[in-house]
Amino acid sequence: MKKLLENNRNLEIIKGIIGLILGILILANPQTALMAMATYVGLLALIVGVVLILWALSKKKGSWQWRLSQGVINALLGLLIISYPDVTASLLIFIMGLWITFLGIFQLTATLKLRDKIPGQQLSLTSGILSVLVGALLMFNPFEGAVLGTLILGAYALFYGLVRFYVAWKMS
Q1: Would you tell me how many other CB atoms lie within 10 Å of the CB of residue 135?
Q2: Backbone Cα Rg of the chain
Q3: Which of 19, 75, 111, 139 could make a disulfide contact with 97, Cβ separation 3.0–4.6 Å?
Q4: Residue 124 predicted with pLDDT over 90
Q5: Burial of 172 (0-12, 13-18, 19+ CB in 10 A)
Q6: CA–CA separation, 5 vs 93, rounded Å?
Q7: pLDDT tens digits for 7-29?
Q8: What domain count does the chain have?
Q9: Which residues contact 3 (CB under 8 A, 6 or more apart)?
Q10: Alpha-carbon dihedral 73, 41, 101, 93, rounded to 10 degrees
Q11: Which of 45, 34, 160 is nearest to 91 (CA)?
Q12: Model-level pTM greater than 0.70?
């Protein structure tokens, strides 16, 4: 049990560091962060598409046509995202809002289920509720508030990082 808590503590510290770094970077320049996120998503889709195309053409057995079509769709989607990062940024904010909402629901469920075993339960509950609220805000206002959403995302990342550090501290 001690080893499990130590591993979880180290994981919480890592999540805290990542949250703080992302929060600071996003808050330092939200417009650039937003366009960078959209561009990286486009590059990732393009790279995955090219890899799938090459893999499908080199194997040509099994469901290679399916992989080829996936590759073509990914590559085209990647090119589209890179070409129109502003539209992608708005959609990305919506997707992030959806992700943060699910993260909050999961955190609330885990906190309530493991009430007696989680140190800093009040803070974990607060973080879960805040995650659901921030996620909903981002989902329902993605197009007009992309930069505001990025600022909210940066503030959330800072808060998340601090909560993870607090939980790790309580585990020791």
Answers
A1: 22
A2: 19
A3: 139
A4: no
A5: exposed
A6: 34
A7: 677 888 888 898 899 889 888 98
A8: 1
A9: none
A10: -110
A11: 34
A12: no
